[in-house]
## 1
Amino acid sequence: MPDMEELLYPTKKERVEDRRKEQRHRKLQDEFFDHPTLTTISRLITQGQFESIDYPISTGKEGGVFRATLPGGFRAVKVYRIGNTIFKRLPPAVLEDLIREAGAHQRARLVFAWARREHTILRKLAAAQVRCPEPYGYLRNVLVMEFIGTDGVPAATLQEMVVEDPGGLYEELVEQIRRMVHNAELVHGDLSPYNLLLWEGKPVFIDVGQSIPSAHPEASGLLARDVATLAKFFGRWGVDTSPEAMLESIGPIRSASEAA
Ligand SMILES: Nc1ncnc2c1ncn2[C@@H]1O[C@H](COP(=O)(O)OP(=O)(O)OP(=O)(O)O)[C@@H](O)[C@H]1O
Ligand SMILES: [Mg+2]
């Protein structure tokens, strides 16, 4: 039983902590759960996509990813922020696509197109047997996907992990990129240890909304950048590789003219 005194007169530390909690809560509400987004979430709940949103797994510049609960399981819900979205991370070609699709420069409509794009790309990857969260649906700026984790605990990114078998993981990753480029015909375009989850000992691609078709003229440049980042990362783990060696294992991508 808590002491009555303690309840009535919280310590300074408790009051500060309470205020912090309140601020965090308000920040989440302001940044992600504005009124239209809450309406969207309630429609997704009505559709049976999930029953409740539990907590943020991550909050970033462009959005937040939340764990959601469903009877008997979990889902990951990505809420794209409408207010402060920065489109700078997108390759120019993707931004052009979004503008074309949204039919306007309106920020909200661009963001909706971006969420839909990530859903479409996840579907293509899943169809090509590339390890990624299975997409379950989207509405406006909210994307619902498979929760990658175990017993409700989200999987860590490669960045946060101590990799036990870097060589094996490297081989698996190269195979996954190969499938992505040749079977799904897509180049991720923002590959880094932050956008790869390690789950059941294997990599899972996330954050795929900026991916572009491998036949696109910008694709080989983006692939070169992706592998350079990863070769550096695995090099630090003692894997003997280079961007060139990685590209060689992945195999050349078809150029736009070959694809046409
Ligand atoms: N399907 C998922 N299951 C579990 N965790 C996930 C899932 N998708 C994303 N996450 C977690 O959320 C984080 C952010 O996801 P993602 O990179 O897609 O969002 P983002 O808005 O682009 O964020 P950032 O700006 O930080 O890259 C990931 O690093 C990962 O920890
Ligand atoms: Mg990310």
Note: The two ends are 74 Å apart (CA to CA).
## 2
Amino acid sequence: MKKNTTVVLGITGSIAAYKGADLCSRMTGKGIDTVVIMTRAAQQLVCPRTFLTLSRNPVVTDLWDVPDWRPGHIDLSERAALLVVAPCSANFIGKMANGIADDALSTFVLSHEGKIIIAPAMNPKMWRNVAVQENMEKLRRRGVIVVGPASGRVACGDEGQGRMEDPAAILSVIEEALR
Ligand SMILES: Cc1cc2nc3c(=O)[nH]c(=O)nc-3n(C[C@H](O)[C@H](O)[C@H](O)COP(=O)(O)O)c2cc1C
């Protein structure tokens, strides 16, 4: 694995955002320089300070909250080897598939020229939705690496495919992509 390579970890508004914190901790533990960008919905579910502490880097929570002359997403795109969105919500899959850039994370997606890994996480009914599946097909065609979702019981009690893949499994895919 390359040393001193920045990986951007996007956290979206899925209940699995807490597992994103576990992934972040594992990434830092492996010596991966991790910069976290959270959507507004993600911040309703997990606190940015959790990621500040686990990543040991400032957390990007707002596209406009940049003290420098240079927009943060452009600066970050020059040092990011890899973008990982875990968990990736149904909404965010749709934004990625359709090139929408209306917040810090989705704007970063458009400025990032490296590899992308996503770990979808949602209710099985949402995962089965035809719009979500069509959007997933677009992302796969573009070479986005998709990890999961796994099958089992989701947070609301439903059973089926939709659980975010285990952080340890996502970490293995990250390490492979960085080789
Ligand atoms: C408690 C709660 C849990 C949610 N969990 C999920 C989820 O696991 N997956 C998902 O796709 N959406 C989930 N949502 C809906 C998203 O948060 C919502 O679609 C939001 O607009 C996503 O925004 P984002 O993609 O910018 O993070 C959840 C909403 C609530 C209120």
Note: Residues 34 and 56 are 8 Å apart (CA to CA).
